[in-house]
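User: Hi! I'm working on a homework problem where we have to compare a predicted structure to a textbook description. Could you give me the structure for the chain below?
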Amino acid sequence: MNGPLGWKAVYFDLSRTACSAPTIQAARVYIIYTAASARSARSVRGNGVRIVAWNCRMAFAKKRGLLANLRPDIAVIAECSRDSILACKDDGFATCWWGDNQNKGLGVLAASPWTLEAGRRPTQKWVAPVRVQGPLSFLLIAVWACPVGMSKEKNYVGQIFEAVTRHPGWFADQQPVVVCGDFKSNAIWDQGRKIRNHSAVVKLLRDRNLFSAYHAFFRKNIGRKPDRHIFLAQKRTMLSHRLHIRAQ
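Assistant: Happy to help. Predicted structure tokens:
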């Protein structure tokens, strides 16, 4: 999928790799690289950025070593504690974390030479803009969609809808933008959400020239059928880790 500055996005489903740990099979690994790179996607390190999106389901401090096996340049980690993310500084990562509960929040990690510059505290839970600087610089919008009250319309994907509509500055110029994380949404759950639903968010992002890396790479239509390989081994609960990249 062609993107800004000749970027392309490559998607790898971890459940098809040699890694067998159930807790990390829920992760997704994306590689975004420049069209000028002559290397294969598997040897792109140094010519692109390797992004991991993972809902670790808490206890990240005990699972931290599993993440190292994925060799992320950037990692978006949902349901992690503040202390477990800060501890990653010992592994050489730059860190950001957001949350109301210090034991369960949204974290972003960046390996050298990438650095992170967080914006203001998110107004939606949890959709956080982070400026990523490095060999490929871009605006990362990290996502861990959460409930905020009794209104179904405003919970989960409703928070992403509000974040996108209330922050036009994120998409105002031609800067590369990556929206990545745990969306907790799918078009099959649109019923009962009149406005703030999955299909509406997909359209909002598409109108801003952002497209799903997974669906573009595999040439799939969004929302037709859930992907069976996105199920947790423990509960068979469907996840919705996604990465949207701006394409010019």
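For your comparison, note the following. The longest helix spans residues 157-166. The helical segments are 60-68, 82-86, 157-166, 198-207, 213-218. Good luck with the assignment!
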